[in-house]
Amino acid sequence: MATAKELLSRVTVIEENKQVSKNDVFKPGDVVPASGIYVVEHDVNNPHHEVTCIQGKIFPPSNKVKHPRYRIVHQAIHIENHEDHKP
Predict the structure, then answer these.
(1) pTM recorded for the entire structure
(2) Is pLDDT above 80 for 38?
(3) Residue extents of the structural domains in the chain
(4) How far is residue 66's CA from residue 36's CA, in Å, rounded to a whole number?
(5) For residue range 1-12, what is the model confidence (pLDDT) as tens digits?
(6) What do you get for the CA distance between the two ends of the chain, in Å?
């Protein structure tokens, strides 16, 4: 598996307001395409839960299950990228 630094080096441009479909599925190691609330889907024995993910970071692996998947629930602009809060 590639390191986070290696994955980020492959990303040439991260679009600031990229729209993510609720049908898009992401796995650990993928670059988070847009900041927001994501549901982490596990197997049938583990309940799903919601997490906040930040654009440009890497979706992490799970300590409990082998193949978690991430889907966007609500997209939001990270405060550091919001026009009203930029220095």
Answers:
(1) 0.74
(2) yes
(3) 4-85
(4) 23
(5) 556 555 444 443
(6) 36
